[in-house]
Known about the structure:
Number of helices: 14
Oligomer: single chain
Bound molecules: S-adenosyl-L-homocysteine, iron/sulfur cluster, FE3-S4 cluster
Distance between the termini: 58 Å
Amino acid sequence: MEKNMYDQVPTMEPQRQFYYMEKAKSYVDDLAQQLGRRPTFCVTTFGCQMNARDSEKLTGILETIGYEAADSEDADFVIYNTCTVRENANNKVWGRLGYLSTYKKHHPHMKIALCGCMMQEPEVIEKLQKSYRFVDLIFGTHNIYKFAELIVATFEQKGMVVDIWKDTDKIVEDLPVERKYSFKSGVNIMFGCNNFCSYCIVPYVRGRERSRKPQDIIREIEHLVADGVVEVMLLGQNVNSYGKNLETPVTFAELLQEIEKIEGLERIRFMTSHPKDLSDELIEVMSKSKKICKHLHLPLQSGSSRILKEMNRHYDKEQYLTLVEKIRKAVPDIALTTDIIVGFPGETEEDFLETMDVVQKVRYDSAFTFIYSKRTGTPAAAKEEQVPEDVVKDRFDRLLKEVQSCASERAQALTGKTESVLVEEVNEQDSSLVTGRLSNNFVVHFPGTEELIGKIVNVKLKECKGFYFYGEMTGEV
Length: 477
Ligand code: SAH
Ligand code: SF4
Ligand code: F3S
């Protein structure tokens, strides 16, 4: 690059990235000329809603610089936004990289980028550098805002471009984002995690907790609403500790009250709530709110106080149950959902029965159940008392059965009621139906057309199918 070009590169963000977007655009235009068509991209997302939101940011940049979305990985630029929370998430990526390498042999101009949580693990980078030389670009979770700059590097540099940061205190605002849905959107309110639950790799790959300023969050939601969004999902690994590290501290409950005031916004959801930080103030705000959905995801992880201590969760069985009681009293029709891990090192049958006991007492509307997965570098990985596979499998099956029976019992109790529903899509199996979500997060399918997408309508829940309903629209809200 010529020196005077260097002089023009802004040092401030996001200006610097807009400069690189312009530059990337000219490279992509050249490529389009060579190909005789617009080059295409495909972003594949693994993992949680934070990753899904990050992928929308990647897509926003790719579309700004002139790539077109492809329906499949048969594209000119393939990006894997990876997850490493459990080993199987990780294995999926290795498996699919094999296919990509074959594909790239026949399409040498193709670019492949890997980013996300798995890239924050040094062993992964080593393995990629050694045996996966066909990958063009590798970056992590902290520098995704630099995507345009990194794309330019892949056009200007030979070989693999690798840029991984250990951690960051930086939050770059106002970059382009391309939403998957026109009417709903995730909104990051914080990044990272400071909790270090002993089984979990997230704090190592997502860095220290940092909150966005309330005014930046509000401004983003106002823009989203002006653009047709009626429902937001506030995202953070532990939203209940939002705002603690801001210059002027703000609580999550205070933030919610400010968001509630945004005119045109109809529904507010959030994810995830750590039980240890769920305040009375938040319960009160939820009980009074007209917009916060009647759904709380409250990960239990284990019902055994002994295991919870080993997990470093900072609550015990009784505290969790008391909290549930308090929430149900304040918001009687709330749906409670959870995450549970089976087979944490040293988990005995007695410990497991404590988990079953909590499930039976709380009667969750839905629960994600996971088999414990050993993650290198976490304190739990060093524990020797791993539970035998067949024992874990047996517990997992028993738990799943219980969880499913609670969920269908909870759904059954709603049958016959009329509820407001946000219509999300035309049903994939039957195009005479549309699919929507109740405030409490249950799904309903009912006769309707595409024009209803993004609208909130009243639907009578006629038939319960276990975890979802068939219904009939009774009118617009
Ligand atoms: N921050 C969220 C969870 C993010 S990870 C919270 O604390 O609630 C999502 C879920 O994955 C966790 O709730 C946990 O149940 C599960 N999980 C995390 N690490 C795991 C591991 N090593 N093995 C199995 N499940 C795990
Ligand atoms: Fe992992 Fe615990 Fe942080 Fe959730 S709160 S991301 S389970 S360390
Ligand atoms: Fe996975 Fe990273 Fe989310 S490890 S669960 S994508 S924060």
